[in-house]
């Protein structure tokens, strides 16, 4: 039980530290962790299958993850979000008659099958 509590607290702290640049992500993680801890503690107390602290720890971890996801979506900072500034765009190359992706962050381009098309000199890819 103590290990699970420490693990949940550590993962929640890590998630919050990684989200400092996205205010809604951080706020959502904190609110989700608080709500999840309260709900998990209640479920643990009522069910009797798990200890209250263990239920609160699991609830805090699940709530932080759900809240961070919701905040990340609101901030458009999630790598999987199509509105994210880091997302790639699919472009058609007429001369090669193929599609390629442009990575906005690095400037590198990749063919649709994943092979490197072009990368600016000195850019790690």
UniProtKB/TrEMBL annotation:
Entry keyword annotation includes Oxidoreductase: no
UniProt entry tagged with the keyword Disulfide bond: no
InterPro entries on file: Gly-zipper_YMGG (IPR027367)
A Pfam family recorded for this sequence: Gly-zipper_YMGG
Record domain YMGG-like Gly-zipper: where: 28-69
Keyword terms of this UniProt record: Signal
Signal peptide: 1-17
Protein's name in the database: YMGG-like Gly-zipper domain-containing protein
Species whose genome carries this gene: Marinicauda algicola
Lineage, uppermost ranks: Bacteria, Pseudomonadati, Pseudomonadota, Alphaproteobacteria, Maricaulales
